[in-house]
Amino acid sequence: MIPIIPAGSDKPAPAAQVSPADNQQLWLKPGQISLPGSPPLSLYVHVPWCVRKCPYCDFNSHAAPGKQDSHDIPEDAYLDALRADLEQSLPLVWGRPVHTVFIGGGTPSLLSAAGMDRLLSDIRALLPLDADAEITMEANPGTFEAERFASYRASGINRLSIGIQSFNDQHLQSLGRIHGEREARAAIDIALTHFDNVNLDLMYALPGQSVEQCLRDLEAALSYGTTHLSLYHLTLEPNTLFAKFPPALPDEDLAYEMQDIIEARTAQAGYRHYETSAYAKPHREAKHNLNYWRFGDYLGIGAGAHGKLSFPHRVVRQMRHKHPATYMQQAMAGNAVQEAHDVAASDLPFEFMLNALRLTDGVPASSFHDYTGLPLHTIGKQLAAAEKKGLLEADPTMIKPTELGRRFLNDLQEMFLKD
Ligand code: SF4
User: Which pLDDT does position 132 carry in this prediction?
Assistant: First the structure.
């Protein structure tokens, strides 16, 4: 049974209990908004284990049971649960083609080659996956074996996202990562042998990092010429070890200097800064992430996975049970979803803008109505005010941040918070 939270609730207090089979009928009822159609649909699959938990990480990731080399995760039971979860979700997305799949975590590269093959077979058997769907898998250095990655590719993974974070052993150690520079480079070599679409995740403003060290990391990443780079400013997230015992981080001015260098060097190297933290070679933007930022739909399966699904008169957010053991048990009993609520119409403008404003090119103004079901004049005043402050381009056909708007993104986003 899934607790359904009424729109506008702050607390997850269950208001009604319905079986998954009744969900579709419930979500199809009249509501406060009217969507002209369904946004593109993606699939997210969460694998909740890592070899070890990093001290800065606030994702739903858990240290894998067993020894480091045994990768001792309950793979079969988890794959059973994912399949059951997907089967239960089908009535909510009947007939809708799936354009992208993202297998994230956690560390999905802890799955065996056979396990990944089974997961992709299940997805293909149950969902109408586009023939040229982008299928990304996250992987971490320290879990790379050439044979396994060749098999992942053969099973249908066509994009890899590797959590490099740094090439500096000292910084990797301070981040609690299980790999060093050698493993990072070996992982990239293996990835590039089998994949032509590879993203490298790198972080900057690391504990004790100088601008020169940041540049050295960046140059190392650029030297591989991968199609995509994700460059994240390290932040201290609540409920992490770093939040409890904060390390000394570079000050704001230093971090800005790093950001400026990143901006200049990536542009010189042929990457376009198309989203707050994302840089891509021409036509190699991450399609899956673009769908999130454009406020598209995504079904999220796996422990703690979040989903966003649109119906003619509502936008629904779902969250699966977070702990892997609970999730597996509940998914097999037909209750993978722990919480679901329809987003209040008054919250939709901010949720839409929070995502869209991250994009350098912004989004067509018409997509506001297409994806929120609300007329554009709902945010007319805020659009005009942001334009007046020089934070948004003066183009009525687009919602597009200016350079100033991108630099002061939080201020710009906040302008769309409901009063
Ligand atoms: S490897 Fe990634 S997901 Fe896993 S604990 Fe570290 S940061 Fe989190």
Answer: 96
